[in-house]
Amino acid sequence: MDSFTRNYVDRFMADVIARNPGEAEFHQAVREVVESVAPYITACPHLMDKKVMERIVEPERILIFRVPWTDDRGEVHINRGFRVQCNSALGPYKGGIRFHPSVNLSIMKFLAFEQTFKNSLTTLPMGGAKGGSDFNPRGKSDDEVMRFCQSFMTELFRHIGQDTDVPAGDIGVGGREIGYLFGQYKRLRNEFTGTLTGKGLGWGGSLLRPEATGYGLCYFTEQMLGTRGESFAGKTVLISGAGNVAQYAAQKAMRLGAKVVTLSDSDGFIYDPDGLDEEKMAYVFELKKIYRGRIKEYADKYPGSTYYPGERPWRIPCDIALPCATQNEIRKEDAEKLVAGGCMCVAEGANMPSTPEAIHVFQENGLLYAPGKASNAGGVSTSGLEMTQNSMRQHWTAEEVDSHLRRIMSDIHAACLKYGTNEDGTVNYVRGANTAAFIKVADAMMDQGLV
Ligand code: NDP
Questions:
Q1: CA angle 132, 137, 140 (to 5 degrees)
Q2: 351 CA closest ligand 1 atom index
Q3: What is the pLDDT of residue 290?
Q4: Catalytic residue numbers, as ranges
Q5: Which of 189, 268, 368, 380 is the most exposed, fewest CB within 10 Å of its CB?
Q6: Whose CA is nearest to atom 42 of ligand 1?
């Protein structure tokens, strides 16, 4: 990076940090993008003059609201609700809703910012947003979750709509929560529209939406491996998380011939040296969806496996790592363990699961490494396909949706190669994804004037 560009990055980040104090995750996400796209921006005076990047880091709208609800004993609780509508240059705002006690403004802003670039990569007409609450669904009854979702939507409904902002699920928000949110939205608006995605199959949902993030991650990873003449076949794979993304990533990796040996949750991880199989996966689906159980129960059920409380899986030797739990779950020391254990490829199912120091370790050691905004874009892509089906009042077959998903992931991979291939033929997927995504958003913003 030349000194003019380095100065631009330093001044830009100093301003972002001063204007958004204490928002560490947001700063981290912005820095990654700005470092990638600064050479492009500084070579385009019109983007500098019109302060396009300065506008992108300032969300178009941020909503913060009170969410009061009562538990089954009649006690009153108050949570905080968020919706960050980051950028609508490419289409209606689109992005998930997260229910987790860690949710705060910094996390919402980083996710909405990432989503803007991810949605750009999908090539579908979607702007970027994210929302959520510090509500913890763990241990709550169905009725409590329903009352919370209804209260949350009682404020959110006035800010969203099928042509305005279309939320979906994320951590802590799956099919059950989308159902309750949709029911309340429909009641308040008195209309049945595709304003949420991830809906039930019988009432407007798309086939393969639950599978899409995990499957798309594996399709993208296959393409990455293909650049080195490799594939999933015979590879040992570590997966973190045991939720929506992790489950379907594990299923697809397994079906592509890999041996998946770990899953985790926030309490610890299980290691199964024999690898998951269809029967074990069926047990995990049931454990999580029906019983809302913990992953440690896997080790009780399958005696050859071991549960490691309070640990993450990264010290287990592997060929491929697919982090699918949460942000910053791979730190520098974890990345070093992955390298020492023979890992050749890291593709992110979660959003920003690797710290900048961990990414540096991957890149220094020549690993194939893809950021979540490229590799996990299959989920939002299929949400976009759900929106299309809702607008057309059609229902596509699983094969049709899957072929769209494969094509989109392949196109995203091609965009990463176009902007991320180094002179020596290696690929910097971070630069490739950020640059391809930025150009599309920036061009649309230039076309639409100063709004
Ligand atoms: P789920 O709620 O279905 O599952 C999340 C999993 O991650 C759970 O096993 C959970 O464990 C674990 N987890 C959550 N927080 C932590 C933490 N702080 N430390 C360790 N483990 C944690 O969420 P999803 O599978 O939908 O989402 C996982 C990741 O993928 C997130 O980063 C999300 O933003 C991203 N993503 C999701 C998409 C989707 O379509 N759902 C699309 C694109 C990205 P526990 O039960 O203990 O909380």
A1: 150
A2: 32
A3: 86
A4: 130
A5: 189
A6: 379
For position 1, what pLDDT does the model report?
86
Residue 33's nearest CA partner among 451, 435, 442 is: 435
Provide the mean pLDDT of the chain.
Answer: 97
Q: Please state the atom number of ligand 1 nearest to the C-alpha of residue 352.
A: 32
Helix (H), strand (E), coil (C) string for the chain: CCHHHHHHHHHHHHHHHHHCCCCHHHHHHHHHHHHHHHHHHHCCHHHHHCCHHHHHCCCCEEEEEEEEEECCCCCEEEEEEEEEEEECCCCCEEEEEEECCCCCHHHHHHHHHHHHHHHHHCCCCCCEEEEEECCCCCCCCHHHHHHHHHHHHHHHHHHCECCCEEEECECCECHHHHHHHHHHHHHHHCCCCCCCCCCCHHHCCCCCHHHHHHHHHHHHHHHHHHCCCCCCCCCEEEECCCCHHHHHHHHHHHHCCCEECEEEECCEEEECCCCCCHHHHHHHHHHHHCCCCCCHHHHHHCCCCEEEECCCHHHCCCCEEECCCCCCCECHHHHHHHHHCCCCEEECCCCCCECHHHHHHHHHCCCEEECHHHHCCHHHHHHHHHHHHHHHCCCCCHHHHHHHHHHHHHHHHHHHHHHHECCCCCECHHHHHHHHHHHHHHHHHHHHCCC
Distance from residue 177's CA to the centre of ligand 1 (Å): 15
What pLDDT, in 10s, does the model give residues 320-364? 999 999 999 999 999 999 999 999 999 999 999 999 999 999 999
344 — phi, psi (to 5°)? -115, -10
| Residue 103 structure tokens | 């949710």
> What are the pLDDT digits (tens) for 201-212?
999 999 999 999
Q: Is 411 exposed, middle or buried (0-12, 13-18, 19+ CB in 10 A)?
A: middle
Q: Is the CB of 244 under 6 A from ligand 1?
A: yes
Strands 259-260 and 236-239: parallel
Comparing CA positions, the residue from 127, 132, 185, 207 lying closest to residue 395 is 207
